[in-house]
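Tutorial, part two.
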Amino acid sequence: MTTDKKQVRILLEILKQRGVEDFIISPGSRNTPIVIGVARDKNFTSRVVIDERSAAFVALGLSAQTSKLVALVCTSGTAVLNYAPAIAEAYYRNVPLIVITADREPEVIDQNDSQTIRQSSVYANYIKYSTTLPCEIGNDVDEINTIQQITLAIDKALTPDRGPVHINVPLREPLAGLAPVETLNIDIPQQDIKQKSVSEEQQQELISKLSQYKKVMLLASFAEPDAELNKSLSQLVKLPQVVLLTETISNINVEGAITTIDRTLTQLTNENRADAAPELLITFGGSLVSKMVKTFIRTHKPKEHIHISECEWKIDTFSALTWQIDISATKLFGLIADKVTVTNSNYNQMWHELAQSAADKKSKYVASVGWSDMKAFSIILPSIPRETYLQLSNGTPIRYAQLFDNYSCLKSTSNRGVSGIDGATSTAIGAACGTDKPVLLITGDMGFQYDSNALSIADVPNNIKIIVMKNGGGGIFRFLPGTSLLPELEKYFECVTDVKVKQLAEAYSFDFYSVTSEEELKSLLPQFFASPHKAIMEVVTPRTENDKILRNYFKE
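Running the prediction step on this input gives:
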């Protein structure tokens, strides 16, 4: 027996045929038919997460980890709104989700009935496609339209610029009605994705630009690991006129790349700044973390800026865009990398001299500083086991990670689509559900507290490890020039607080470690990483010293 709601049976049958296996479900009443249909089908794997905001980030993490379409299911009303932060993040990170929201029957909306809001197109500004199914299927036309809407939604989620889609399902009572399982003869056309390409003329034009300009900068931001892309970029960085700058979460592993952008930019002076500016800038990947590189390029605009993206809209981060190429970076560089010729230039050499100068100064400085966030990161990052997926929360963790050379792990990632503080722990737990390898989250104490509901998720996998930088509040605000000098800093921005990390860890059966010094961190890290259980380590650092040490880092 399964649900007697035909539109739900059709929805689940189509999802099954299109390979959807994972559902993240939050309890409710109105979504009862969907829950029944999922729970009773052996083809589906479902996880229950009570908090809808956390549930959506778990789905985000799971989909990003597995590169598969993941379905979310919630009840009607405010539950729907709680999905919004993760949906926005998925939209700007191109993570595919099927968001299924149960709804009340249309005639009771805005009629002072309970648990009703206007759910149709509720995510309009950050969803790839949204549809509301018929409340009942009364004839063949209703059934055909339902199949078409669901199929189109899945197609939209999986197009090259992937992302979340929304299927709203109005349901009438009774909600727990059952019917015998039956085979639904639904003929679903296979998705025909038109492969995006560039013409021979466009390829030759780009090759010509790369071969003629003496100062070409490739700037790589948020992306998934890609061996083919690495291979092509390895060819390009050997050219004297080309420099490759990569961010930590670009996941590019290429010998000859500049992997510490902010650190290297500290070596620019009034005398060499113009020489370091590119004539041709080529960008690819998601949003940039580094404010320093954005400021540098905006004040020293290139003659040409080419952005490589399959996004639906133009992306002009530096107000200098001259050409957006609508194709994947992997495919484009694969077509042209071995055809670009050498130009007489010292551009690559100049940037590597800057990087080496910064590296020498960094090593001396970090060795000289006392116990702090910077000292802790200098110990943690090189110690991460190679077979680890690293998740970095927003605030200071992602920024500190940018200051250190590439460390060996399977992938580094962060919620940098919208860059919110919310959902980092839930996202990491979702990722851990999608792999047997260790998943390490490095987060701040404010972000950890903000998403503490994630710890209560049933059956949190033992491969999740969490390091909480416990520095007494929002340390990033002590460093940002706009807030650091305000008298309101501590109360309204930093929000000085003593997050009870130990109590939260013990409440949800996590192994717990606490360190307050360099010696303790070096001693306990191997034990923490080797733990066979889910574990949390708090790293307690001085609240009022971290910003001073970081500022002095850039001065040095």
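The first helix runs from residue 6 to 17. In part three we will examine how such features are distributed along the chain.
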